[in-house]
Amino acid sequence: MLKRFVDILVSLTALIFLIPILLILALVIRTKLGSPILFKQARPGLRGKSFNMLKFRSMTDETDLEGNLLSDEKRLTKFGLFLRASSMDELPGLFNVLVGNMSLVGPRPLLMEYLPLYSQQQAKRHNVRPGITGWAQVNGRNTLSWQDKFELDVWYVEHQSFILDVKILILTVLKVLKREGINQQGQATVTKFTGQSDGG
């Protein structure tokens, strides 16, 4: 109950103070990347229940001659990279926190298609609400293998506390300022999870 109270208080306060920044970002995104401004995608939340996660759009919708979307690397612009490096693309997630789909701190919500691929141990990450940031994010973020990421997620679930959440939030701010762990080496985005024990 304390965690949920803090989530509501912090997300509501942050959204009120960030309204000017959110409006400016929305205008710039509309100008540089087009519409829609928000990226919405179904993700598994608490106990694997689906919800629509919100982020600011960071890629164009460019396609090839056959109408297929180009690779992430080709659609990710310099402005999109800035949004991701600064984590500003995550700001709309505060709405998810406010309504209860997400928490400020918890395992990052991944793709719905991964649900059948998890081992029983890995699936424990859904025993809590997913977070905007988490233990894996402050211990390597996207540079981690899938196996390491899931181990950190489960460790958080089994050791979560108010003090740990505060520590993760502080470390998150430091990581964002240093722009560490944004992408996997040689990848514009994260490689897909295949269910392999080594993370693929």
From TrEMBL:
Residue stretches spanning the membrane: 6-29
Residues of the Bacterial sugar transferase domain: 3-178
Pfam annotation, one family: Bac_transf
Keywords of this entry: Membrane, Transferase, Transmembrane, Transmembrane helix
Gene Ontology molecular-function annotations: transferase activity
InterPro entries the UniProt entry points to: Bact_transf
Domain of life: Bacteria
Family to which the UniProt record says this protein belongs: Belongs to the bacterial sugar transferase family.
PANTHER family registered for this protein in UniProt: COLANIC BIOSYNTHESIS UDP-GLUCOSE LIPID CARRIER TRANSFERASE, UNDECAPRENYL-PHOSPHATE GALACTOSE PHOSPHOTRANSFERASE
Protein name: Sugar transferase
